[in-house]
Amino acid sequence: MKSLFGDEFSRDERTSGWSGKGLMIWVLDIWSVQGVIKQCLRAQVGDDTTILIFLEHWVPQFSPAELLQSCMDPGKLSTVSDLIDPSLGTWRVDVVQALFPAPVASAILSLPLPVDRWSDHMVWRLEPHGRFTVRSAYNFLLCLDAQRETTDARDIRFYKMLCSQPLLKKAWIFIWRTFHNLLPCYVNLYLKHVVPDKHCFQYGTGQESVLLALIGCSQLHSTWGLFGWEQFTQGHERDFREWMVYVLSHLSIPETHKLFLLCSLWVARNYQLYQGHISSDVEIHGFVTTYLEELSLASVRPDVVPVPIDRLWTIPPVGFIKVNVDGSYDKDLRMGGIGCVLRDSTGQLLAGYSSGIPHAMDAFHVESLACVEGLNLALSLGYRSLVVEGDSRSVISRVASSQVDCSYGGCITDQIWDLATSFDRCIFQHVGRDGNRVTDVFGREGLSRVSPICLFGSPPPFAVPLFASDQAALFS
Which of 16, 55, 231, 356 is packed most tightly, with the most Cβ within 10 A? Predict the structure, then answer.
């Protein structure tokens, strides 16, 4: 359980330890929604002996029911091991293609299998990295809730009214957060069991709602008075939506910009609560006025269009070689092409490699395999110090991280880490597309290749112009 839920499971354990009662409540909460949680899990193929093909979610794009419905002969299959050659550790392509239609077969064959076998395990399928997050679970539960407040007709009318007003974005977001009880006033904190009572921290009496924090005292009344809005300071006990409708119905279109005052009053409240600084009515009025004046000036200033800077290929440090990797992915054909280019600290081409990937899951899958092939090529040529560059930020960030990768491509990430330990020095860094242009054409060439190519010394015809451009930029 801890391997799946990660930090969400252990955060209290790190601070004060799990008490018996607290742990029991947590377990009961998880148990009560186990049916929902099961919908969010996916089996990760390891030793392929325990995953039931038609009962567990293990292919990202297809549910177990869809696999069962599409299978030509379900009686021949039980666990995922029936689809894998045990001696080679690869998919039994003929069996998969014979039993499943092309889209399903392609999705299965594109699943990478681990080189080092581990036990089958469950991962969280709502996140690419495979680990549980509160955010993804919360959003999933919201999708299941057919009675959400935003579907209420009254709320829709309120939103339509808001959208028809030329409010500043900051004011619009503030109103939206207030409407959904997301601002940490004492009433909301009390309802979430964060504070012991809901009385206003300034007066000690009265429940501190957002509306009380905006219009509930004489100093706030004088601030509103500086804008000529004394009539809006009455009735802080009413519903916020009702008060907001009243305010907007009494303001002219140009005046709605001044509702930035709401955000400023809330910031002033927080300064007083957390830093002890009490902002005067004149100070708040001056800040709002200055902000709106500067905003109006900014809107009439001409835009300055920045000149794009080409960040071309750069040489590695002396003693290193640079391994650039890239991948191309054809979504319609579900095919990939990978390219690897090795150059020394003078920019000379040492080796280039291009190959096709017949069953590719997605761009991340292809980019990861390109990194594997680049490291294998450098290792086979005897190089010891590498700078590995790629333009896929997701791949580079994962291989440069020490965190365990629980995604479907985690076995490829493990393979990259194992290869990296074979070198004296191996540095992974991200580069923009302009710095990876030569490798990109190698990757696109791989899309059309049946067999791989490996070149040494001089670039192939399809890469000559871009290679010459990189060389010219180095010595310009």
Answer: 356
Q: Are residues 195 and 280 in the same domain?
A: yes
Q: Do 460 and 335 fall into the same domain?
A: yes
Lowest-confidence range among 146-155, 200-209, 219-228? 146-155
Quote the DSSP letter at residue 193.
Answer: T
Q: Do 167 and 266 belong together in one domain?
A: yes
Locate 92 and state its tokens.
Answer: 């039994």
**Which H/E stretch holds residue 95?**
helix 93-99
Tell me the residue type at 178: T
The DSSP code for 199 is B
Nearest by Cα to 123 from 133, 113, 112: 133
In tens, the pLDDT along 426-436 reads 999 999 888 89
289 shares a domain with 167: yes
pLDDT in tens, 41-86: 877 777 666 788 888 888 888 888 888 888 888 888 888 888 988 8
Number of domains, the chain: 3
* Terminal-residue alpha carbon distance, the chain: 58
Residue 391 and residue 415 in one domain: yes
Same domain? 160 vs 264: yes
Strands 321-330 and 385-390 turn out to be parallel
**Half-sphere exposure of 338 toward its Cβ, with a 13 Å CA cutoff?**
30
In a domain, 193, yes or no: yes
Bridge partner residues of 356 (DSSP): 337
Considering the domain architecture, whether residues 442 and 466 belong to the same structural domain is answered as yes
d(CA 116, CA 209): 58
CA distance 460 to 59: 39
